[in-house]
Amino acid sequence: MTMTRRNFVSAFAVAACLLASPALAEDKGLMAIITPSHDNPFFKAEAVGAEKRAKDLGYDTIVLVHDDDPNKQSEMFDTAIARGAKAIILDNAGADASVAPVQRAKDAGIPSFLIDREIKESGIAVSQIVSNNYQGAQLGAEKFVELMGEEGPYVELVGREADTNAGIRSAGYHDIIDQYPDMKMVAQQSANWSQTEAYEKMESILQANPKIKGVISGNDTMAMGAWAALEAAGRTDVILVGFDGSNDVRDSIVKGGIKATVLQPAYRQAQLAVEQADQYLTSGSTGQQEKQLMDCVLIDESNAKALETFALSE
Protein backbone atom coordinates (compact mmCIF):
# COMPACT_ATOMS: atom_id res chain seq x y z
CA MET A 1 0.00 0.00 0.00
CA THR A 2 1.34 3.44 -0.88
CA MET A 3 1.27 6.36 1.56
CA THR A 4 0.69 9.95 0.46
CA ARG A 5 2.85 12.74 1.88
CA ARG A 6 -0.14 14.04 3.86
CA ASN A 7 -0.82 10.61 5.38
CA PHE A 8 2.85 10.14 6.16
CA VAL A 9 3.06 13.45 8.01
CA SER A 10 -0.16 12.64 9.88
CA ALA A 11 1.10 9.20 10.87
CA PHE A 12 4.44 10.67 11.94
CA ALA A 13 2.69 13.24 14.13
CA VAL A 14 0.56 10.54 15.79
CA ALA A 15 3.65 8.38 16.41
CA ALA A 16 5.48 11.36 17.87
CA CYS A 17 2.62 12.06 20.24
CA LEU A 18 2.52 8.43 21.32
CA LEU A 19 6.25 8.43 21.97
CA ALA A 20 6.02 11.69 23.91
CA SER A 21 3.09 10.60 26.07
CA PRO A 22 4.99 8.31 28.49
CA ALA A 23 7.60 11.02 29.11
CA LEU A 24 4.89 13.56 29.79
CA ALA A 25 3.20 11.15 32.16
CA GLU A 26 6.43 10.68 34.10
CA ASP A 27 7.21 14.40 34.36
CA LYS A 28 7.04 15.43 38.02
CA GLY A 29 6.89 19.17 37.40
CA LEU A 30 9.28 22.04 38.01
CA MET A 31 11.90 22.30 40.74
CA ALA A 32 13.47 25.73 41.33
CA ILE A 33 17.12 25.90 42.41
CA ILE A 34 18.23 29.27 43.83
CA THR A 35 21.82 29.93 44.97
CA PRO A 36 24.38 32.73 45.28
CA SER A 37 26.64 33.55 42.33
CA HIS A 38 28.21 30.69 40.39
CA ASP A 39 31.43 32.72 40.27
CA ASN A 40 32.07 30.96 43.57
CA PRO A 41 32.74 27.30 42.69
CA PHE A 42 31.06 26.16 45.92
CA PHE A 43 27.71 27.60 44.88
CA LYS A 44 28.15 26.36 41.33
CA ALA A 45 28.71 22.84 42.69
CA GLU A 46 25.47 23.15 44.66
CA ALA A 47 23.51 24.17 41.57
CA VAL A 48 25.05 21.48 39.38
CA GLY A 49 24.48 18.76 41.97
CA ALA A 50 20.88 19.78 42.61
CA GLU A 51 20.00 20.15 38.95
CA LYS A 52 21.46 16.78 37.99
CA ARG A 53 19.67 14.94 40.78
CA ALA A 54 16.37 16.69 40.07
CA LYS A 55 16.52 15.75 36.40
CA ASP A 56 17.46 12.17 37.29
CA LEU A 57 14.32 12.01 39.44
CA GLY A 58 12.08 13.30 36.65
CA TYR A 59 11.78 17.03 37.36
CA ASP A 60 12.20 19.99 35.07
CA THR A 61 14.47 22.61 36.60
CA ILE A 62 14.99 26.33 36.69
CA VAL A 63 18.35 27.49 38.06
CA LEU A 64 18.47 31.05 39.40
CA VAL A 65 21.21 33.17 41.01
CA HIS A 66 20.44 35.84 43.63
CA ASP A 67 23.97 37.26 44.04
CA ASP A 68 23.36 37.60 47.81
CA ASP A 69 20.79 40.30 47.05
CA PRO A 70 17.63 39.77 49.17
CA ASN A 71 15.50 41.81 46.75
CA LYS A 72 16.66 39.74 43.80
CA GLN A 73 16.01 36.57 45.81
CA SER A 74 12.48 37.76 46.57
CA GLU A 75 11.84 38.27 42.84
CA MET A 76 13.10 34.75 42.15
CA PHE A 77 10.65 33.33 44.67
CA ASP A 78 7.89 35.22 42.87
CA THR A 79 9.08 33.65 39.60
CA ALA A 80 9.09 30.16 41.12
CA ILE A 81 5.60 30.67 42.56
CA ALA A 82 4.24 32.10 39.29
CA ARG A 83 5.64 29.15 37.34
CA GLY A 84 4.04 26.66 39.70
CA ALA A 85 7.24 25.11 41.03
CA LYS A 86 6.67 21.94 43.05
CA ALA A 87 9.59 22.70 45.37
CA ILE A 88 12.40 25.20 45.91
CA ILE A 89 16.01 24.30 46.71
CA LEU A 90 17.64 27.36 48.29
CA ASP A 91 21.03 28.59 49.46
CA ASN A 92 19.73 31.84 50.86
CA ALA A 93 20.65 35.52 50.70
CA GLY A 94 20.49 36.21 54.43
CA ALA A 95 19.24 34.50 57.56
CA ASP A 96 16.70 37.24 58.33
CA ALA A 97 15.87 38.48 54.83
CA SER A 98 15.01 34.99 53.59
CA VAL A 99 12.29 34.24 56.12
CA ALA A 100 9.56 36.20 54.30
CA PRO A 101 10.02 34.67 50.81
CA VAL A 102 10.22 31.13 52.22
CA GLN A 103 7.00 31.82 54.13
CA ARG A 104 5.42 33.25 50.97
CA ALA A 105 6.28 30.09 49.06
CA LYS A 106 4.86 27.95 51.86
CA ASP A 107 1.62 29.96 51.79
CA ALA A 108 1.46 29.26 48.05
CA GLY A 109 1.81 25.52 48.72
CA ILE A 110 5.45 25.29 47.63
CA PRO A 111 7.86 23.70 50.13
CA SER A 112 11.43 24.99 50.47
CA PHE A 113 14.50 22.89 51.18
CA LEU A 114 17.48 24.92 52.37
CA ILE A 115 21.15 24.07 51.97
CA ASP A 116 24.40 25.54 53.31
CA ARG A 117 22.86 28.52 55.12
CA GLU A 118 20.15 28.47 57.79
CA ILE A 119 17.36 30.95 58.29
CA LYS A 120 16.50 32.26 61.74
CA GLU A 121 13.05 30.71 62.04
CA SER A 122 11.98 27.09 62.19
CA GLY A 123 8.80 25.57 60.85
CA ILE A 124 8.53 27.36 57.51
CA ALA A 125 11.15 25.42 55.52
CA VAL A 126 10.74 21.65 55.33
CA SER A 127 14.48 20.96 55.56
CA GLN A 128 17.55 22.99 56.47
CA ILE A 129 20.57 20.87 55.55
CA VAL A 130 23.81 22.60 56.48
CA SER A 131 27.41 21.72 57.09
CA ASN A 132 28.42 21.43 60.71
CA ASN A 133 30.23 24.74 60.48
CA TYR A 134 31.23 24.84 64.13
CA GLN A 135 32.74 21.34 64.02
CA GLY A 136 34.49 22.16 60.73
CA ALA A 137 35.87 25.44 62.05
CA GLN A 138 37.30 23.66 65.06
CA LEU A 139 39.06 21.18 62.75
CA GLY A 140 40.55 24.04 60.77
CA ALA A 141 41.57 25.94 63.90
CA GLU A 142 43.27 22.89 65.40
CA LYS A 143 45.34 22.48 62.24
CA PHE A 144 46.10 26.20 62.16
CA VAL A 145 47.36 26.18 65.76
CA GLU A 146 49.52 23.14 64.99
CA LEU A 147 51.02 24.76 61.89
CA MET A 148 51.64 28.00 63.82
CA GLY A 149 53.49 26.12 66.55
CA GLU A 150 50.94 27.48 69.04
CA GLU A 151 52.29 31.02 68.82
CA GLY A 152 52.59 34.14 66.73
CA PRO A 153 50.61 37.07 65.28
CA TYR A 154 47.78 36.10 62.96
CA VAL A 155 44.90 37.55 60.95
CA GLU A 156 41.31 36.37 60.55
CA LEU A 157 39.27 37.05 57.39
CA VAL A 158 35.57 36.83 58.21
CA GLY A 159 32.71 36.16 55.80
CA ARG A 160 29.61 38.21 55.06
CA GLU A 161 28.23 39.48 58.35
CA ALA A 162 24.57 38.82 57.39
CA ASP A 163 25.42 35.15 56.84
CA THR A 164 24.97 33.02 59.95
CA ASN A 165 27.81 30.75 58.83
CA ALA A 166 30.33 33.58 59.08
CA GLY A 167 29.67 34.00 62.78
CA ILE A 168 29.54 30.27 63.49
CA ARG A 169 32.88 29.63 61.80
CA SER A 170 34.54 32.55 63.55
CA ALA A 171 33.26 31.29 66.90
CA GLY A 172 34.54 27.79 66.15
CA TYR A 173 37.96 29.19 65.25
CA HIS A 174 38.25 31.25 68.41
CA ASP A 175 37.01 28.57 70.78
CA ILE A 176 40.16 26.68 69.80
CA ILE A 177 42.70 29.42 69.06
CA ASP A 178 41.90 31.51 72.13
CA GLN A 179 43.05 28.65 74.34
CA TYR A 180 46.62 29.48 73.28
CA PRO A 181 47.78 32.75 74.91
CA ASP A 182 50.77 33.11 72.58
CA MET A 183 48.50 33.23 69.53
CA LYS A 184 47.83 36.96 68.97
CA MET A 185 45.15 38.16 66.55
CA VAL A 186 46.41 41.48 65.14
CA ALA A 187 43.61 42.03 62.61
CA GLN A 188 40.09 40.74 61.98
CA GLN A 189 38.24 41.99 58.90
CA SER A 190 35.28 40.92 56.80
CA ALA A 191 35.97 40.33 53.12
CA ASN A 192 32.36 39.30 52.43
CA TRP A 193 33.29 35.90 50.97
CA SER A 194 34.93 37.79 48.06
CA GLN A 195 38.29 36.93 46.47
CA THR A 196 38.84 40.47 45.19
CA GLU A 197 37.94 42.04 48.52
CA ALA A 198 40.18 39.57 50.38
CA TYR A 199 43.12 40.53 48.14
CA GLU A 200 42.58 44.21 48.90
CA LYS A 201 42.10 43.65 52.63
CA MET A 202 45.18 41.43 52.81
CA GLU A 203 47.31 44.09 51.10
CA SER A 204 46.25 46.68 53.68
CA ILE A 205 46.68 44.31 56.61
CA LEU A 206 50.19 43.38 55.48
CA GLN A 207 51.21 47.02 55.32
CA ALA A 208 49.99 47.59 58.86
CA ASN A 209 51.21 44.24 60.22
CA PRO A 210 54.28 43.16 58.23
CA LYS A 211 55.30 40.48 60.74
CA ILE A 212 52.16 38.33 60.61
CA LYS A 213 52.79 34.61 60.72
CA GLY A 214 49.38 33.22 59.77
CA VAL A 215 45.96 33.87 58.24
CA ILE A 216 42.78 31.90 58.91
CA SER A 217 39.95 32.48 56.47
CA GLY A 218 36.21 31.94 56.69
CA ASN A 219 36.08 30.45 53.20
CA ASP A 220 38.31 29.32 50.34
CA THR A 221 37.40 32.17 48.01
CA MET A 222 38.78 34.69 50.49
CA ALA A 223 41.73 32.39 51.13
CA MET A 224 42.61 32.47 47.44
CA GLY A 225 42.46 36.26 47.40
CA ALA A 226 44.61 36.48 50.51
CA TRP A 227 47.14 34.02 49.09
CA ALA A 228 47.44 36.04 45.87
CA ALA A 229 48.21 39.15 47.95
CA LEU A 230 50.75 37.25 50.03
CA GLU A 231 52.45 35.93 46.90
CA ALA A 232 52.56 39.41 45.39
CA ALA A 233 54.24 40.67 48.57
CA GLY A 234 56.75 37.81 48.61
CA ARG A 235 55.23 36.41 51.81
CA THR A 236 54.65 32.78 50.89
CA ASP A 237 56.03 31.89 54.33
CA VAL A 238 52.70 32.94 55.88
CA ILE A 239 50.56 29.99 57.03
CA LEU A 240 47.09 30.11 55.49
CA VAL A 241 44.08 27.90 56.25
CA GLY A 242 40.72 28.13 54.46
CA PHE A 243 37.27 26.58 54.62
CA ASP A 244 35.11 24.92 51.90
CA GLY A 245 37.24 22.33 50.11
CA SER A 246 37.48 23.98 46.69
CA ASN A 247 39.54 22.63 43.80
CA ASP A 248 41.52 25.88 43.69
CA VAL A 249 42.67 25.53 47.29
CA ARG A 250 43.26 21.80 46.76
CA ASP A 251 45.67 22.68 43.94
CA SER A 252 47.40 25.26 46.12
CA ILE A 253 47.82 22.73 48.93
CA VAL A 254 49.33 20.19 46.53
CA LYS A 255 51.79 22.84 45.33
CA GLY A 256 52.78 23.73 48.90
CA GLY A 257 50.98 27.08 49.04
CA ILE A 258 47.87 27.25 51.21
CA LYS A 259 48.31 24.72 54.00
CA ALA A 260 44.82 23.36 54.67
CA THR A 261 41.09 23.77 54.23
CA VAL A 262 37.91 22.21 55.60
CA LEU A 263 35.66 20.30 53.23
CA GLN A 264 31.94 20.84 53.40
CA PRO A 265 30.18 18.50 50.94
CA ALA A 266 28.34 21.04 48.76
CA TYR A 267 27.50 18.70 45.89
CA ARG A 268 26.11 15.91 48.06
CA GLN A 269 24.29 18.36 50.31
CA ALA A 270 22.40 19.79 47.34
CA GLN A 271 21.55 16.32 46.03
CA LEU A 272 20.27 15.30 49.45
CA ALA A 273 17.96 18.32 49.52
CA VAL A 274 16.52 17.30 46.14
CA GLU A 275 16.03 13.73 47.34
CA GLN A 276 14.22 14.95 50.44
CA ALA A 277 12.08 17.26 48.31
CA ASP A 278 11.10 14.33 46.10
CA GLN A 279 10.29 12.16 49.11
CA TYR A 280 8.23 14.94 50.67
CA LEU A 281 6.28 15.54 47.46
CA THR A 282 5.69 11.81 47.11
CA SER A 283 4.85 10.85 50.69
CA GLY A 284 4.27 14.09 52.61
CA SER A 285 7.33 13.61 54.82
CA THR A 286 11.12 13.58 54.52
CA GLY A 287 11.49 11.22 57.46
CA GLN A 288 14.04 13.66 58.91
CA GLN A 289 13.97 16.57 61.32
CA GLU A 290 14.04 20.02 59.76
CA LYS A 291 17.57 21.00 60.77
CA GLN A 292 20.24 18.52 59.73
CA LEU A 293 24.02 18.81 60.12
CA MET A 294 26.63 17.21 57.85
CA ASP A 295 30.11 16.90 59.37
CA CYS A 296 33.12 18.47 57.67
CA VAL A 297 36.53 16.92 56.90
CA LEU A 298 40.01 18.46 57.23
CA ILE A 299 41.92 18.65 53.94
CA ASP A 300 45.71 19.00 54.00
CA GLU A 301 48.70 17.61 52.13
CA SER A 302 47.79 14.07 53.26
CA ASN A 303 44.47 13.84 51.38
CA ALA A 304 44.21 16.86 49.06
CA LYS A 305 44.77 14.79 45.92
CA ALA A 306 41.61 12.79 46.68
CA LEU A 307 39.45 15.94 46.65
CA GLU A 308 37.35 16.74 43.58
CA THR A 309 34.52 19.28 43.28
CA PHE A 310 33.69 19.41 47.01
CA ALA A 311 33.74 15.64 47.40
CA LEU A 312 36.43 13.35 48.81
CA SER A 313 36.97 10.04 47.05
CA GLU A 314 37.45 6.93 49.16
UniProtKB/TrEMBL annotation:
GO cellular component terms given for this protein: cell envelope
Gene3D superfamilies in alphabetical order: 3.40.50.2300
Signal peptide: 1-25
Keywords noted in UniProt: Signal
Pfam families: Peripla_BP_4
Subcellular location: Cell envelope
Primary residence: other
Keyword Signal: yes
One example GO MF annotation: carbohydrate binding
Periplasmic binding protein domain residues: 32-282
Record family assignment: Belongs to the bacterial solute-binding protein 2 family.
PANTHER family, A to Z: D-ALLOSE-BINDING PERIPLASMIC PROTEIN-RELATED (PTHR46847:SF1)
Protein name in UniProt: D-ribose ABC transporter substrate-binding protein
Native species: Jiella endophytica
